[in-house]
Amino acid sequence: MAEAMGRAVGETSRSGTTGEHRRDAQGTRRLLLDAASELFAERGYERATVRDIAARAGVNQALLFRYFGSKKALFGEVMARGGHEQLRTTPAERLFEVALRGMLAEGRGPGADRSLEVCLRSIGGSDEIAEALRGLGDEYAEVLATLSRADDGALRGDLALSWLLGIGLMRVVVGKEPLVSADPDTVCQLVGEALGTLLESLPKTE
To answer: Which residues contact 6 (CB under 8 A, 6 or more apart)?
Structure first.
């Protein structure tokens, strides 16, 4: 009986250790994803180094390779968590405004979606990264195109995406005034009113 109790205690101990390890691993992955999202958005893919990502996450860079395999794979997960999750969970008629407000937001906590900023900072990188960015852009444009009943809906979707990225480029990368200091609500209202002529199914601004 004592032997059986010993085995049970040992199994419980191992189970607890496994559970704690799993939680630690999930926490480390989340820290690395948050740090990578921030640095990719601030510097772009090429200039955000593995060492700096690990340092901002507060972990050894060997863990980055353990959990993600490579910097490119980490980049893919950052984009999947941000842009692809936004595409999956946001109604088509709200997508443009949600994405725009994300780029206009000043205060961002850990885990905030900065995927479009990552796109803007990483344009012109390696062919593989450029291909991934084009793929995400195509998905956004395809969703936006569904908001038009016109025969040239695909073109209208591309134009809407170009406007969205252009606003982000001027505000986030170039730092153009008065756009940088403009109130996000004002920007969204002005853009929404004009965009309604391109995508008829956008919600009307009040």
So the answer is: none
Omega into 110 within 30° of 0, i.e. cis?
Answer: no
Which segments of the chain does DSSP mark as H helices, in order?
2-43, 50-57, 61-68, 71-79, 85-89, 92-104, 115-122, 127-145, 153-168, 184-195
Segment 83-93, tens digit of pLDDT: 778 888 999 99
8 A C-beta contact, residue 195 and residue 100: no
Per-residue pLDDT tens digits for 5-56: 455 445 444 545 555 545 588 899 999 999 998 898 888 888 899 999 999 9
Amino acid at 55: A
Nearest 5°: phi and psi at 26?
-65, -40
CA within 13 Å, CB half, 114: 27
Residue 7's Cβ-count burial label (10 Å; 0-12, 13-18, 19+) is exposed
Higher confidence at residue 77 or residue 60?
60
Alpha-carbon distances of 65 from 27, 48, 56, 70, rounded to whole Å: 15, 15, 15, 6
Residues listed for the chain: 206
Helix (H, G, I), strand (E, B), or coil: what is residue 184?
A: helix
CA atoms of 157 and 166, how far apart (whole Å):
14
Per the rule left: phi > 0, alpha: psi between -120 and 50, beta: everything else, 5 is alpha
